[in-house]
Design brief:
Elements lengths: L6 H17 L37 H14 L12 E7 L5 E8 L2
Antiparallel strand pairs: 1-2
């Protein structure tokens, strides 16, 4: 696992890179709040997804109908019969009376 740099180490590294940039003749310009780098006389560029053009769509109504029919066939409910259980749920406890688990036993 790579060692994670602390925030202070990241700040020091960033300040070092900035000072190297300025020493090599780099220049930093300040801009006013709300000022943009875009030329206001030119129109906004078009979004990339608009330039793709229209796409043809494939209808899948038959596929959806088949899937729905399969769902309905799986969820057919069988009529419930009114059977009484022949088993009884019983709590098993340890020597101190603490509950351990539930088990099914025959009704007596």
């Amino acid at each position: 696992m790579k060692p994670v740099k602390s925030k202070q180490q990241l700040r020091d590294e960033l300040n070092q890179q900035i000072s190297q940039y300025l020493e090599r003749g780099g220049d930093v310009t300040r801009h006013e709040l709300g000022e943009s780098g875009r030329d206001a006389s030119k129109p906004l560029p078009r979004a990339p997804f608009v330039e793709q053009g229209d796409q043809t769509r494939t209808l899948v109504n038959e596929v959806v109908q088949t899937i729905e029919e399969r769902k309905k066939s799986r969820t057919k409910k069988t009529p419930k019969t009114n059977r009484r259980r022949t088993e009884k749920k019983q709590l098993v406890v340890d020597d101190f009376g603490e509950p351990l688990r539930w088990v099914w036993t025959d009704k007596k």
